[in-house]
Specification:
The structure holds three protein chains of three kinds.
Chain A: H1 10-35, H2 39-54, E1 58-61, E2 64-66, H3 71-78, H4 80-97, H5 106-131, H6 135-164, H7 171-203, E3 219-221, E4 227-229, H8 243-261, H9 271-278, H10 282-287, E5 300-301, E6 304-305, H11 306-330
Antiparallel strand pairs in A: 1-2, 3-4, 5-6
Helix pairs in contact in A: 1-4, 1-5, 1-8, 2-4, 3-4, 3-5, 3-6, 3-7, 4-5, 5-6, 5-11, 6-7, 6-11, 8-11
Chain B: E1 2-12, E2 18-28, E3 32-36, H1 43-50, E4 58-63, E5 66-67, H2 73-79, E6 80-83, H3 87-90, H4 96-106, H5 111-124, H6 140-152, E7 158-162, H7 170-182, E8 186-190, H8 194-200, E9 203-208, E10 211-217, H9 218-223, H10 225-230
Parallel strand pairs in B: 3-8, 3-9, 6-7, 7-8
Antiparallel strand pairs in B: 1-2, 1-4, 4-5, 9-10
Helix pairs in contact in B: 4-5, 4-6, 5-6
Chain C: H1 16-19, H2 22-38, H3 44-60, H4 65-71, H5 76-88, E1 93-96, E2 99-102, H6 103-129, H7 132-141, H8 146-175, H9 186-213, H10 230-250
Antiparallel strand pairs in C: 1-2
Helix pairs in contact in C: 2-6, 2-7, 2-10, 3-6, 3-10, 5-6, 7-8, 8-9
The chains are: A mainly alpha, B alpha/beta, C mainly alpha.
């Protein structure tokens, strides 16, 4: 769901905006390296596909239907760089042109639904693909990638909510609710993604970025009747170097967000009130409804010092980043 | 000078299937020529060699004296105006005006001259009134005409059309024929529509099994029923070649 | 989500607002939204003034209230959530109409309701007075990476085409008696989605060929430049400027 204005405080909104902008910038370079002068039309058409497929009704039962988010699907079909660009463009257009999602929440929406889903989806896909080969394995990997990408996005949402959400709801409640619902949604996303990837594999396997190593080697018939096989065509594997600095930078930024900014978080969700507080309107602070809430105080968050709570959050993000960085590193290997 | 010279052109797809086995043809300036042939004969493949989208495995293509090579592509693409079968593939800009301007802008035309060239091209196809509309607001026939305008704006040496009359209703078909007749550019038309070829092109080529199987006056070719049958060409039911 | 409730927001017109260059309007609306989000939620009157300001813009743009209200439906899930927060929120509780509600929750609900609503209305006004492709031209002027703007331009151009193909696939399915009723039918829909991807991808390749055929060499030619005068910037930025003044006064 697209986050509206006011749901997160200014600090988190701006930081997420910076992370989103940096991520998109890295992916612009990466996509151009892979697609060259085809980038704009190809990514544009795939983005149109993503937008359209998000509107598709997938029946669940008795009149209810589910929808695809498409991050993992985009990553598997066109690769992580182009995938992020497509998702980002779809989200930006939805936010600016269709008022779906707040203008100040563009960074958050792009980060959570565009970048996290694509990167986690791609990372999981690559990990699973290392273990098994063949079309069946690709489909299974697609299922797992999409399945995990959704709760991963929900996790990041919860983390951001913990740091800078404006509602006094116990983080545990948010985590449980978001997590629970999104694991279910993840199953749906996984099934739909796997089946869609399978459908493409059945007709045009060469179009599935994640299945590039599956092409059968070409046979050449020599004059004497002998056959020679030539190695499968190598697609230029772009340097994964661009993604890792971004991940490290993103993690670093989250560290700053979580550890430092939350330390200075005012007892109310709005950044400007910190200013008000420091100027001496402390009575406002004690009157504030949030006084008893987790990150509202300088002191503790539900018993855990704020800084440590933030670091735990970052630890989890690091785990996510590690999965992706690991997957990104392996992209250099070309399958023969 | 000849608008187009193709000599011993041969080509095979990446998967090994050979499509063209040595095509020879010459088109002089101002001619209107139809390229006929059964499905799968290689017509579209041949056409894609004319502006360098495909590189010949063997043989040469020369447009107004300039050979088609990697280093001459920019010039060739300005000289060869290729109109695709699906106008939606060709109208990729937000408005009609942007699409018509795309070609000349790439060739370096700017400012008032660009406006003039765009206006001129749209007038020639009768679509100036739609200049600021997005392509998907136009009817199929109108989009086809705008697609023609997008290449006319580049002032090409030769206009190459792939199935120009397909999916057009009779009125749109007639309008397009009138436009093509009014242009003073060399035309090569790939088509299944034999009456259209007869109506617009004095000369026809039959491409079959990757080579030019026949080359002559359209009326004479279409009157040769044995020739047509040999290459899976048929005149529409009830169509009689009009006496000239 | 993106589940088909995307009405075409643009409303053709010739008002002062319509005629402002897109980069001015885009920047004005974004900075306005930032000011709104940064406003402390206690200052009811500030939010009231923001609403009045947006009403003035709507009036100047000759956009009827009903138009805006209809398109605010997109906000519904979060409105509901905003009403839910006081019920499930933590902290000191108070009694309202017999219900025990969380006081911090009430504040938070109001906070989200006010800011999200103002943000959505501002967004709607921008989209109602500026065509999508023109907004993109404005974005480019605001230094959004050119490649990103180009991708968005192609996406907008072909969105209708792709959605149309999707619609035709659905009609074809239904004409053969297929009714999507439960999860067992998902594979059929997924196959359509797969086919749609292939068609979209192949069209992308054909579009690229068409671009090459008209001389494309990697850089899109510069085509449309909309420049803004100082006066136009002043008019547009009046909105966030006044909002900022209100914010300052409220602190």
């Amino acid at each position: 769901m697209h986050v509206p204005d006011g749901f997160f405080n200014v600090a988190v909104s701006v930081s997420a905006g910076v992370v989103a902008a940096a991520g998109v910038a890295v992916c612009l370079r990466g996509a151009r390296r892979e697609l060259d002068d085809r980038t704009a039309p190809m990514a544009g058409l795939v983005a149109a596909f993503i937008f359209a497929v998000q509107m598709l009704n997938f029946p669940v039962a008795a009149g209810t239907s589910g929808h695809l988010l498409g991050g993992a699907l985009a990553a598997i079909l066109v690769g992580p760089y182009t995938g992020v660009l497509c998702m980002a463009v779809v989200l930006l257009v939805q936010g600016v042109f269709f008022a779906d999602g707040g203008l100040t929440a563009l960074g958050i929406n792009v980060t959570i639904m565009g970048i996290v889903t694509v990167l986690v989806g791609w990372g999981v896909f690559r990990l699973v693909s290392r273990v098994a080969r063949g079309k069946g394995a690709v489909t299974a990997a697609a299922f797992l990638a999409a399945l995990i990408s959704v709760p991963a996005a929900a996790l990041v949402f919860t983390l951001l909510f913990w740091i800078g959400g404006t509602s006094p709801i116990a983080v545990g409640t948010v985590a449980a609710a978001m997590g629970g619902v999104h694991v279910l949604i993840g199953v749906g996303e996984g099934v739909i993604t796997a089946l869609t990837v399978g459908a493409v594999l059945a007709v045009r396997p060469d179009l599935v970025y994640g299945a590039r190593g599956l092409a059968k080697p070409l046979e050449l018939r020599e004059a004497g009747g002998t056959t020679v096989t030539v190695g499968a065509e190598e697609r230029p594997a772009p340097a994964s170097g661009g993604l890792r600095p971004f991940l490290l930078g993103g993690v670093g930024l989250t560290l700053v967000l979580a550890g430092v900014v939350s330390f200075f978080a005012s007892s109310s969700p709005d950044g400007l009130e910190a200013v008000a507080e420091s100027k001496g309107f402390l009575h406002k602070a004690t009157d504030h409804a949030l006084g008893s809430w987790a990150l509202g105080d300088y002191g503790a968050a539900g018993g855990i010092p704020v800084g440590i709570a933030g670091v735990i959050g970052v630890g989890l993000t690091l785990l996510l980043a590690g999965v992706v960085a690991y997957a990104a590193r392996n992209r250099r290997k070309v399958r023969a | 000078m000849n608008s187009l010279e193709v000599s011993r052109l041969a080509y095979a797809y990446p998967d090994g299937t050979q499509a063209l086995f040595g095509v020879d043809l010459t088109i002089t300036r101002g001619e209107r020529v139809a390229l006929l042939g059964p499905n799968g004969a290689g017509k579209t493949t041949l056409v894609m060699h004319l502006n360098g989208i495909l590189s010949a495995g063997h043989g040469t293509v020369t447009v107004a004296g300039t050979p088609v090579r990697k280093d001459t592509l920019k010039e060739i693409r300005q000289r060869v105006g290729l109109v695709f079968q699906d106008p939606d593939d060709q109208l990729f800009m937000p408005t009609v005006r942007d699409d018509v301007a795309f070609g000349p802008a790439n060739a370096g035309v700017t400012g008032e001259e660009l406006d003039r060239v765009v206006k001129d091209a749209l007038e020639r196809v009768g679509m100036l009134h739609a200049a600021d509309r997005p392509p998907h607001h136009l009817s199929f026939g109108q989009r086809r005409r705008v697609a023609v305008a997008t290449v006319l704006a580049m002032q090409p040496e030769i206009l190459v059309l792939d199935e120009p009359s397909s999916n057009l209703d009779p009125a749109a078909r007639r309008e397009l024929a009138e436009i093509l007749r009014s242009l003073d550019v060399t035309v090569l038309m790939v088509t299944h529509d034999l009456p259209y070829a007869l109506e617009l092109c004095e000369r026809s080529l039959i491409l079959s099994d990757g080579v030019i199987a026949a080359d002559g006056h359209t009326g004479e070719l279409l009157a040769d029923s044995a020739l047509l049958a040999a290459h899976r060409l048929e005149l529409p039911y009830g169509f009689a070649i009009p006496a000239r | 989500m993106g589940a088909g409730h995307h009405h075409q927001l643009y409303r053709p017109g010739d008002s002062v607002v319509h005629r402002l260059p897109p980069q001015c309007k885009l920047l004005a609306v974004i900075t306005f939204a930032i000011v709104v989000v940064a406003t402390p939620r206690e200052n009811f009157w500030a939010f009231g003034l923001y609403a009045v300001m947006l009403a003035v813009v709507a009036g100047a743009a000759r956009v009827p209230p009903a138009f805006v209200l209809r398109r605010m439906v997109i906000e519904l899930p979060f409105v509901l959530f905003a009403f839910l927060i006081p019920v499930i929120g933590l902290g000191e509780r108070t009694s309202v109409l017999g219900l025990s509600l969380s006081v911090p929750g009430l504040w938070a609900g109001w906070n989200i309701l006010a800011k999200a609503t103002l943000g959505v209305v501002a967004s709607i006004l921008l989209a109602a007075t500026t065509e999508p492709r023109v907004i993109l031209v404005g974005a480019q002027r605001l230094r959004v990476p050119t490649l990103l703007v180009q991708i968005a331009t192609f996406m907008l151009r072909y969105l209708d085409v792709i959605v149309d193909e999707m619609r035709r696939m659905r009609i074809a399915r239904e004409s053969r008696g297929f009714e999507a009723r439960n999860f067992r039918h998902i594979p059929v829909i997924a196959r359509s989605a797969g086919a749609l991807f292939i068609r979209s991808y192949e069209r992308g390749e054909r579009v690229h060929l068409a671009m090459l055929s008209r001389g494309y060499a990697g850089r899109m030619p510069i085509m449309q430049e909309i420049s803004a005068s100082v006066g136009q910037w002043a008019i547009a930025l009046a909105l966030p400027a006044v909002a900022l003044a209100v914010l300052g006064l409220s602190l």
